[in-house]
Design brief:
The protein is of the alpha/beta class and about 290 residues long. The protein is built from ten helices and eight strands. Keywords: Hydrolase.
Amino acid sequence: MDIKHYKITVTSEECGYRRSTEDAADLTAYLLSPMPQAPGRLRPAIVICPGGGYGFVSPREDQPVAMEFLAAGYQVFVLHYHVAPEIFPLALMELARSVALIKAHSREWCIDSSQIIVCGFSAGGHLAGCMGTMWNREFLYKPLGLTAEGIQPGGMILCYPVITSGEYGHQRSFSQLLGAGADQDPAMRRLVSLEHQAGPHVPRTFLWHTWTDQTVPVENSLLFASALRKAGVSLEMHIYPEGCHGLSLATEEVSDHTGDCLVPHCQGWINLAREWVAHGPNTGERTE
């Protein structure tokens, strides 16, 4: 296995506002070597966006999750995107440029380019959801010198995602994402409220949440599921009866001294997600 770091740069000119810093985002790649008995085998790729309310990038949803997907035989990438005081659409452009990089190297890295899946947690789930709903918008790909097809993800895994800026929204995430003033702009709030952006162009989606999440209410996932249903998008959704926000893997590895994030009943989501990936982009088609 190789571990590589790539600098993902988006300039002020490209993102449309004067950034507070021109520092690059970091994309960490965990790349498995080809197996001697199957040197031409193509692997799915998972691009992980940890959560943190657009105020930080959570380590609990970083390497522990990457190792689980790596163990399943996937090529795995973790994006440390920019957060506040940087604002929309910088992080989304960093994710778009990351997907484009992975597609450009798909042959070299033995990746099935139709199986590049964005995976996000909480606000990172919102970021991944933006990628899945906005990959075909000119404001996203054109300033980067890319094409819509060049940044199109093959699927989404959304874990207790921030979705709506409305009644059930996690308002701090949207304040951090949009910045002072813009967070009160109805047009901008609607743009980043993903239940309004769903359509038939959205890739197949795996979605999970807990019924008792008090930070990002389950209505976020229910609203998005309803929108995807109306758009005819393939969806697998799991709602667990108990569990706080930010469970990550729900294991002892990611839990602190309180034990709040140790919820054995929720630990199965990662296996369900891996089964969903293996099922392939088309109903009834299984990828090996």
